[in-house]
Amino acid sequence: MLILVLAILLLVAGLFLYFRAQQVREETGLPPGEVIYQDTLRTETAVLDPLFSRTFRLAGKPDYLVQENGEIIPVEVKSGRAPSRPYEAHVMQLAAYCLLVSDVYARRPTHGIVRYADRQFTIPYSEELEDDLLRVMDAMRFDANASNVHRSHEQTGRCIACSFRYTCDEALL
Fold first, then answer.
1. What is the distance of C-alpha 157 from the center of its chain?
2. For the chain, which terminal residue's Cβ has fewer other Cβ atoms within 10 angstroms, N or C?
3. What number of other Cβ atoms are within 10 A of residue 125's Cβ?
4. 31-48 burial by CB neighbour count: b if 16+ within 10 A, else e?
5. How would you classify the pairing of strands 120-124 and 64-68?
6. Could you tell me if 108 and 73 are in contact, meaning their C-beta atoms sit under 8 angstroms apart?
7. Would you list the domain boundaries of the chain?
8. Which class does domain 31-145 fall in?
9. Model confidence over 143-163: pLDDT tens digits?
10. 6 exposure class (CB count in 10 Å sphere: 0-12, 13-18, 19+)
11. pLDDT tens for residues 82-132?
12. pTM higher than the cut 0.70
């Protein structure tokens, strides 16, 4: 009788854990498949090595990589509410992860996902997006060697929150 009770308790616990895992997966917006990389556990013992491409001189740590049917899909999770369309910087960040997956795993993703708190966007990883990313990377490398780089002031909120706004000669306020 004791064995039967223990078996039932184990079954109930297993079902609870299974359904809780499904609920967590839905909350994160992950697509179906096996999570093969996760950089969302922010503890000292859960530090993963970044993906690194010598070819593109690029390193990065996507929040998730999900493998399904031989495809590896990068997923980037943002804590804020979703804009009407994903921010360009978030799309470029996701494109960088797609480029890293393509180089490191030798499998070009067809898309990636940007997940905001209340909505997610599936971003096709097209050749055009890759070309845009490579141009941005070239511009960043050029600017890294420049003596004076103008600030980007497309978002007033970022300028307001910037710790350099009091000394910046290009501040919006």
1. 22
2. N
3. 22
4. eeeeeebbbeeeeeeeee
5. unpaired
6. no
7. 1-30, 31-145
8. alpha beta
9. 888 777 777 667 777 788 888
10. exposed
11. 999 999 999 999 999 999 999 999 999 999 999 998 899 999 999 999 999
12. yes
